[in-house]
Amino acid sequence: MAAETIVIAGGGTGGHLYPGISIAEELAARRRGVEIVFAGAGTKLERDILEPHGFRLVAIKSGGIVGKSLAGRMRGIGRAMAGFAQSIRTLMRLRPKVVIGVGGYASGPMVMAAVMLRLPALIHEQNYYPGLTNRLLAPWVRRVAVSFEETRHYFGGRGEPTGNPIRAAFRGARRKARGDTFNILVFGGSQGAKAINGAVVDALPHLRAHRLGLRFWHGTGARDHERLSAAYSGHGFEANVVPYITNIREAYEWADLVIARAGASSVSEIAACGKASILVPLPTSAHDHQRYNARKLEEAGAALLMEESSLAGEELAKTILRLREDPGRVVAMERSAASLARPDAAARIVDMVEEMLA
Asked: The pTM is what?
């Protein structure tokens, strides 16, 4: 039997899970024999992401209320209440030494259950603007970690700036040497992004005259894979078009420019790899947090922010070509992105956990 158990609560998307995995890897490296259990929504995506790492997953009922209809909010509250009762039972069975909340619907019921059972609890806020769950939990947990110094304002000055943990695979990512082609990495998160995919399809005719000098690596999501493959092929582009990018570090190292959403994990990875980017915030993200994330990089000179509402193929094509023709600007954006990186974020959070366990 493991000497101790630690629960990491959150998930639902890769953006929430990957920081949790980074924290788990750091904990496992430091605390011999520790058993790390993830508490999430129990989705296939969560299982697929966690399985190669060997971490156990327990499913907790949960649901969102932000941006929902009245009926949707009522269903979300009902699921959260059921998830809270389920979390109490799970924690009483596991008897963990500490519970760490990393965001996502399952984080709320599990961390609140930990508070009720007087278990040490820590939350980490990935985004510049914190979500409702973490704003409600912050007064009750022992420690609060934040990715951005400015986020402390939303917690009444509470919170320890750590950065956002990134996967171990990104540590030591190599800088790309300039080549004859301008390489563009496009992705929209674990599910893809229909708006970004559509804008790229519309941009291809405007880029066709430059196709010999451009290369694409595009993670489309499963539903758009066929359409995007046909579009690149039909316009004569050399492109690696896949439903999901599994070797993401290699993709970042290959790229001169990244086009992506502005989720917390994406902007942290872009900074860690020192990449110039065009960021398209998801307009339906809770409390518009992706726009806050993107604006932080834009203000630092590391990224260009393009709103989905005005994302048009011709304008995207012009922006790509302007950057391709101005390598000095791309280098400046890369340096600015790298200056925002916090590669020791997981270590800082685990330092906090160990202080709680001492």
From this structure: 0.83
